[in-house]
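Q: My labmate handed me this sequence with no annotations at all. I'd like to see what the chain might look like in three dimensions before we decide whether it's worth expressing. Could you predict it?
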Amino acid sequence: MALYHEGSRRLQDRFDTRRLADRIDERLVRETIDDDDRAFIEARDMFFIATADEEGRPQCSYKGGDPGFVRVLDERTIAFPGYDGNGMYLTFGNALVNPHVGLLFIDFEGRKRLRLNGVASIDEDDELLAEYPEAQFVVRVRATEVFPNCPRYIHRMQLVERSEFEPRDGCEPPVPAWKRTEWARDVLPTTPDPPR
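A: Here is what I predict for the chain of 196 residues:
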């Protein structure tokens, strides 16, 4: 699968970056996750994921957890939990109808980022489900492109506090305030987890 399309090429030609883009594709873009990528991905506590529905309408979402919530299973596959959110399932609903996804991992303190594009699958009975407290399903992504991304515009930021809502073994997270509001409380799911 070609990384660049006609739109990319048009801008590369307009700004004289085609040679640079080809060199990046030739030298840095690969289909596999190496040991450095694995260490970087598994140390992250958040990433952004881009999806599109069957008509190409996009969604971009933030996913967070404790470091290690994204696991590298082998040189082509990562896995992470699908937790309870606002019930819209825009990102993962898109992945069910169009499994092509793009993930962006960022280290704001070390000012480094990594892109991983691939094909997602969602499984409510995945063998890893038991290892993710309160997960509704496990998402696996089979990598098609893995490459570093230019870090120069990354703002330096520091973690102040992890989310109290992060599911953890033996710890019941609080109910978010929005779930107690008048507009939401009567339409919440009656059980936290769907029957299996």
